[in-house]
Amino acid sequence: MADSSESNGNHGLVLNVEPEDNRNTSPLTSNVSFIVPFMQKLMAEVLGTYFLIFAGCASVVVNVNNEKVVSLPGISIVWGLAVMVLVYSLGHISGAHFNPAVTIAFATCKRFPLKQVPAYIIAQVFGSTMAAGTLRLLFSGTHDVFTGTSPQGSDLQAFVIEFIITFYLMFIISGVATDNRAIGELAGLAVGATVLLNVLFAGPVTGASMNPARSLGPAIVWDEYKGIWIYLTAPIIGAVSGAWAYNMVRYTDKPLREITKSASFLKCSCNSC
């Protein structure tokens, strides 16, 4: 996406996308064929992040309070499914970022308007904080449990793991969301599966955040900031690195296939894709 937008008579924003051969029609980008007012995009990010953090962290709370009945695989599945359904339900409205690291990574690659980044991040952190606050109200007293993320080993170990899993996540997102050689309709499934896989092996070590908003919201509500710098820096650096790594891998001088009609409802408004 280009970092320019125009306002229409309904005070909506059109993301004017510069022509590019390797663009996909995935719901993970904001390239939609209709005009969505910017406030609706922010509302979608708030609600999407809220439901993501509420569902994922609720699985952690229930697991702790009920003798590990959910288990690590169960928690991983909850996070993966939550991401998948939210991508399919809100991707065509806001791009379904729900993650400041993803938003920043897209902006550095000029696939998202730079001037909209601060508003998206505020919306994401607000949604995460509200979700964490709801969980604290529901599970208070003797059942109170911190649902944020904190390193179980050394800070270096946690930083490297968060960098790697976010790099991997953003690499996959870039593949299914920005390259029309990929099957864009399966973007939600691919990204959800990646989150599930990352939580399975990284969850016991770092909590598998991959998302500054996911860590910051609970940290604010529980006033627990252990290792928070790791979860604010490693995912952003990892996401930006993953996006640029895919940009290098995806380069080709061969003709790309035409976008199928079945995905035309997600086509951008520039008429050049």
TrEMBL record:
Region ranges (Disordered): 1-24
Polar residues bias spans: 1-10
Membrane-spanning ranges: 42-64, 70-90, 119-139, 159-177, 189-208, 228-249
Gene3D superfamilies according to UniProt: Glycerol uptake facilitator protein
Keyword Protein biosynthesis belongs to the record: no
SUPFAM superfamilies to which the protein is assigned, alphabetical: Aquaporin-like
Keywords, sorted A to Z: Membrane, Transmembrane, Transmembrane helix, Transport
Cell location: Membrane
Domain of life: Eukaryota
UniProt entry tagged with the keyword Transmembrane helix: yes
Sequence similarity: Belongs to the MIP/aquaporin (TC 1.A.8) family.
Protein name as catalogued: Uncharacterized protein
Organism of provenance: Hibiscus sabdariffa (roselle)
